[in-house]
Sequence to fold (246 residues):
Amino acid sequence: MKNSNTPEFPVTDFTSLKILAIIPARGGSKGVPRKNIKELGGKPLLAYTADAALASNLISKVILSTEDEEIMQVGKTLGLEVPFQRPSELAQDQSGSLGVVQHAVQYFEKQGEFFDAVILLQVTSPFREEGFIDLALEKFITSKADALISVLPVPHEYNPHWVFETDQHHNLQIATGEKQIIKRRQDLPKAYFRDGSIYITKTEVIKQGSFFGENLTYIESNPTKHVNIDTLEDWENAEEMIKTLK
Fold:
């Protein structure tokens, strides 16, 4: 269903739109302490996302959102703008990304600066292919969707049509609500999971309190470059990937 509450973007000139890139990086990481500025392959983890964002031809401004003074300093050395120190209440374990993005949007609008859309780039997904950010932005704009996320295919054995839930009698039922299971793998519809690398949303949708709006589109990431660093095991996997990518 088309969302009539948000404006459509012109598609004739991608560069006419103002796109704000936000890189969130709080200091209180527990799975991998200080991971956002911990060195991976000879440079801070933050540097991978910073470099990818700054290389974009379509992003108007790239900022770092953090409450941590050391991360702020590292971000500045990497060429990121650090226009504010994020409030501590938006840097807790339970703090969601939506509040972080809304805070940044509100900050700039109070300064008289307005953006058409926001792209959130998480530091924990460091390996984006060259040009992938701009490809995602182009698809987002031409799709006229409210939002776009990067995704990877769900392995067929975890496809929701082959996943079961228990009912009140502790019997299994297909998670999709269907009565008959799809027997052949070839007949399964494609399913995807968000990989955390890219989130793009119209600013008006963000202000309405949503990351996804009513119309959500997607772009597929390269699975050979996917890692989402949350644990020490993830970090070790990323180190191995560095060797392979080099």
Observations:
- The mean pLDDT is 91.
- The longest helix spans residues 97-110.
